[in-house]
Amino acid sequence: MYDKEVYHFLVLHFPIALFITGFIFNIFYLLNHSSDFSEKIKEYITWTMGMGIIWSFLSIITGFVTALELEYMGSVFEFINKPHAYIMILSTIVFSILFNIKNIDKKIFFVLHLCSIILLIYGTHIGAKWADRI
Predict the structure, then answer these.
(1) Got the DSSP string for 53-87?
(2) I need a labelling partner for 83 at 20 to 30 A (CA). Which of 21, 62, 74, 123 fits?
(3) Contact at 8 Å (CB) between 88 and 103?
(4) Which distant-in-sequence residues (6+ apart) come within 8 Å of 73 by Cβ?
(5) DSSP 3-state helix, strand, coil percentages of the chain (rounded to 5)?
(6) What per-residue string of b and e applies to 57-73 under the rule 16 or more CB within 10 Å gives b?
(7) Helix, coil or strand: residue 10
(8) In this structure, is the dihedral angle defined by the CA atoms of residues 62, 64, 65 and 71, taken in order, positive or negative?
(9) How many CB atoms lie within 10 A of CB 88?
(10) What is the chain's pLDDT, residue by residue, as a tens digit (134 residues)?
(11) Does residue 134 sit in helix, strand or coil?
């Protein structure tokens, strides 16, 4: 019914939205001084980042299927020559590491989170250029 590439285009927006929403919560967390509200925001960051990681894995899988179908890559192992692929894999790994860091100063966490978001946006930009979306 649908081409396999459609699934990647449907799935890829979820992790982007979740990671950026989590970053917005991180800004609120950094600016907030109330301990009750602060703990709730920290939960939101954890949930949005966790769900973003899950959807990222699904997006990477559908991206590989799309790349193989469109003959962007001859095999899954050719991703090292494709900046969009390895940047998005790296971004997912960085978010996964950040997700597992529990006891870190919130300013350091914010800077690491910002770097992760920049990496994510750069990778998505390369993917959008490849797909002739921009």
Answers:
(1) HHHHHHHHHHHHHHHHHTTS-SSGGGGGG-HHHHH
(2) 21
(3) no
(4) 64, 67, 79, 82, 85
(5) 85, 0, 15
(6) eebbebbbebbeeeebb
(7) helix
(8) positive
(9) 25
(10) 456 667 777 888 999 999 999 999 999 998 887 777 888 898 999 999 999 999 999 999 888 887 777 767 666 666 666 788 889 999 999 999 999 997 888 889 999 999 999 999 999 998 888 777 77
(11) coil
- The HSE-up count of residue 1 (CA atoms within 13 Å, CB side) is 1
At 22, list the tokens.
């989590």
Q: Which two tokens stand for residue 50?
A: 């966790």
Structure tokens at 112: 């690491």
AA letter at 126:
I
Residue with tokens 């979306």: 133
Question: Can you give the length of the chain in residues?
Answer: 134
